[in-house]
Amino acid sequence: MPYLLNLIYAALLLVAAPWLAWQAARTGKYREGWLSKLFGQVPLRTSDARCVWIHAVSLGEVALIRSLVDELRRRHPTWDIVISTTTLTGHDLAKTRYADLPVFYFPLDFTWAVGRALDRIRPDVLVLAELELWPNLIRAARRREVKIAVANGRLSDKSFGGYARLGRLVRPMFAQLDLVATQNAAYAERFTALGTPADCVHVTGSLKFDGAETNRHNPGTVKLRTLAGFEASDIVLLAGSTQEPEEQLAIDAYKKLSQRYPHLRLVIVPRHPERFAEVGRTLSASGLIWERRSGWGPRGGNRQVRVLLVDQVGELAAWWGAATIAYVGGSMGERQGQNMIEPAAYGCAVSFGPKTRNFRDVVSALLAAEAATVVLDGRALTAFVERCLGEPTFTAEQGRRAAAVVASQLGATARTVDLLESLFTAPNTIPMRTAA
């Protein structure tokens, strides 16, 4: 089976090679890390300390694990922690955020690549953020008696249905998991249904809540507000993690309302760096006077410019703290939502589109508390912003409720680390657990 998978992976990689080369030339993606990806040439760990290897696929997961890494380091400062990612943006953020930790690209699921990576790192526990299961990796880890954990476990309807259709092919893989810390009971039931032993599955809540900053006076936000020249009277509309056509919707709302509300400012933070140039062209075509975050000098931007394109990776979390009105992107198209916890934690008046399947539980909690607003289209977004501008009491109250929802959900990080600690004291199970 492992060698058959190697052949399948090799065939898929060969077929995808032209597309990967085109993407590398066009966007800069997929240019780096091929020694790690193809051959497991990851950093060599020479320490004999206990080691936790945390894998975070992309930008969102790298941001997610921050509270987990911080708590592990606080409790166990002598442990080694290494971090792997899959995407370029995730890797760049991890290198910046965890500059003192080994950060590398995750090996592809070839037997030789995952085996070599495990031998070079020698982890005690492999922690997979949310869900990133690969058969050869899990098999190789079990053979080396490495405990396998899933943190912030999530199985969407689509993912669960896909795994369920594979049936007996995936049950042995799920049966190898030593720990699954899930966001909610529904996800826990799905992991169990796919073959994870019930005593290994625990509901801990979402790490996303614990990782959210609540203090608007944090150093990152204060610095950005100062550089942007925001005044106390300014009302900042921030459209974050946006995708096409969400930038245009935010621009339309700003153009309609800015003359009536001269203190309104617009900040746009696209989700993907490769779209920065495209969004810049959209802003230029709008007729607005705008500037790029990357164009600022040490003293910041032009205080007279009311529209800003943030074309820097890794700053969105701090920018949310400067916002009064928030639109969370990825919710008008097929992306199915982005993280609305961060603006909610700051007490912004939060809005998002109707397509938020990836954050279903968070959305349900916010809507149940009347702490967010769903906008179905551009007209509804403009109406929401107009109401926030015209009714300060509504804006403040919705923000207060949003912050209260986040506060009520805290604690997942501590519960997850408690469970991870138990893996170090638990007796070794048989190297290869089989599904029932």
Account of the protein in words:
The chain is 46% helix and 15% strand. The chain is of the alpha/beta class and 436 residues long. The protein folds into 3 domains: 1-31; 32-205 and 412-425, 3-Deoxy-D-manno-octulosonic-acid transferase, N-terminal domain (Rossmann fold, 3-Layer(aba) Sandwich), CATH 3.40.50; 219-408, Glycogen Phosphorylase B (Rossmann fold, 3-Layer(aba) Sandwich), CATH 3.40.50. The strands form 2 sheets. A 7-stranded parallel sheet has the order 3-2-1-4-5-6-7, sandwiched between helices. Strands 10-11-9-8-12-13-14 form a 7-stranded parallel sheet. The longest helix has 26 residues, at 2-27.
Quick rundown:
By secondary structure, the chain is of the alpha/beta class.
User: What share of residues are in beta strands?
Assistant: 5-15%
CATH topology of the largest domain: Rossmann fold
Topology, number of strands:
14
Tell me which oligomeric state these chains represent. single chain
Q: How many structural domains are formed by the residues?
A: 3
Q: Which class of secondary structure composition applies to the elements?
A: alpha/beta
Kindly state the percentage of residues in helix.
40-55%
N-C termini distance: 19 Å
| CATH superfamily placement of the largest domain | Glycogen Phosphorylase B
The CATH class of the largest domain, by name, is: Alpha Beta
Q: Which CATH architecture of the largest domain is right?
A: 3-Layer(aba) Sandwich
Q: Could you tell me the mean pLDDT?
A: 92
Overall outline: globular
**Low-confidence stretches at least 5 residues in length (pLDDT < 50)?**
429-436
- Rg over CA atoms, rounded to whole Å, is 23 Å
Number of helices: 20
Strand order of the largest sheet: 3-2-1-4-5-6-7
